[in-house]
Write a structure and sequence with these properties.
CATH architecture: 3-Layer(aba) Sandwich
Radius of gyration: 18 Å
CATH superfamily: NAD(P)-binding Rossmann-like Domain
Largest sheet: 7 strands, parallel
Bound molecules: nicotinamide-adenine-dinucleotide
Strand content: 5-15%
Oligomer: single chain
Order of helices and strands: EHEEHEHEHHHEHHHEH
Number of strands: 7
Distance between the termini: 49 Å
Length: 268
């Protein structure tokens, strides 16, 4: 079978294309024959059709970038992110608010059958427990009002990273339901610990002992490619009935946690 994932000749956008999972995603998509537009604050070495320098904290820069790329856009891969070492308010601006603005700017350029995939995190798996609060945030219409909402909610300062990932999962479920009716699929992956340049930031905030003793049913962290491939597959037209949902790419962590299979007694 030729081109089984159907990316040949497709125009795709990858945020965070300079590093880690975003770079792995951009490399795979280029290899599959897509026209890959990388969006990042930094320029990396992954092969791209074009690089667009853009700070996701800046909505005007996002609008300029989308205009520069132009339509049609067949797939959007929202891979950029800030880790737990960054201040919570800024983390929310990049991980959720800026990506939501980008997504909403790209949707009008998407033909029927297009797809959007976010990299969330297994750290956002508890989003249903915060649903009431998250629905308030989702109801904010733009970057300014979302930023104001965050400034008034302590959870963003206390756990901006985890909350940003919960917000992504909630947005994917709610907005994904609306977009599905327009023939556009919105989904996310929820990775577990992955060896990328972000990993030292998690070790710095959580502690080396905690990170080392975190239960890993598969006995190891994932590689960036082990996250990029499921994301590429999720956004492929082959997944045409998969929408508004999240795929756990966490080496069995969530399954084990939900069913009491994991031993946390050695947690540092
Ligand atoms: N590494 C892990 O263990 C892990 C686990 C779960 C989820 N994640 C998530 O995976 C995604 C990819 O992270 P990674 O591990 O590949 O990290 P990474 O640090 O290698 O890549 C993050 C990329 O985001 C870009 N970026 C940061 N701020 C930006 C901004 N303001 N505007 C535009 N681009 C910006 C960076 O320049 C970088 O290229 C992130 O959303 C992260 O939260 C990571």
């Amino acid at each position: 079978m030729h081109d089984p994932l159907q990316y040949e000749g497709k125009r795709v956008v990858v945020t965070g294309a300079a590093s880690g999972m975003g770079a792995a995603t951009a490399s795979i998509l280029t290899e599959l024959g897509a026209e890959v537009h990388g969006v990042d604050i930094a320029e990396g070495s992954a092969p791209l059709a074009a690089f667009h320098r853009c700070d996701l904290r800046d909505p005007e820069a996002i609008d300029r970038t989308v205009a520069e790329i132009g339509g049609p856009i067949d797939s959007l891969f929202n891979c950029a992110g800030l880790p737990t070492t960054a201040p919570g308010q800024i983390t929310m601006q990049v991980n959720f608010i800026g990506h939501r603005h980008l997504t909403e700017a790209v949707v009008p350029l998407m033909p029927e059958g297009s797809s959007i995939g976010f990299i969330s995190s297994v750290g956002g798996m508890g989003w249903l427990n915060s649903l009431e609060l998250l629905l308030e945030l989702l109801a904010t219409p733009d970057v300014a009002s979302a930023g104001e909402w965050c400034a008034n909610h302590e959870i963003v300062d206390l756990n901006g990273y985890g909350f940003s990932k919960e917000a992504i999962n909630a947005y994917v479920a709610k907005r994904g339901c609306e977009l599905a009716a327009q023939g556009i699929r919105l989904n996310s992956i929820n990775p577990g610990p992955t060896d990328t340049p972000m990993m030292p930031a998690f070790i710095e905030t959580m502690g080396a002992d905690f990170m080392a003793s975190l239960p890993r049913p598969m006995g190891r962290n994932s590689t960036p490619e082990e996250q990029a491939w499921p994301l590429v597959m999720l956004n492929s037209p082959r997944q045409s009935y998969t929408a508004a949902t999240t795929l756990f790419t966490d080496g069995a962590f969530a399954g084990g946690l939900n069913t009491g299979m994991l031993d946390f007694s050695a947690l540092g």
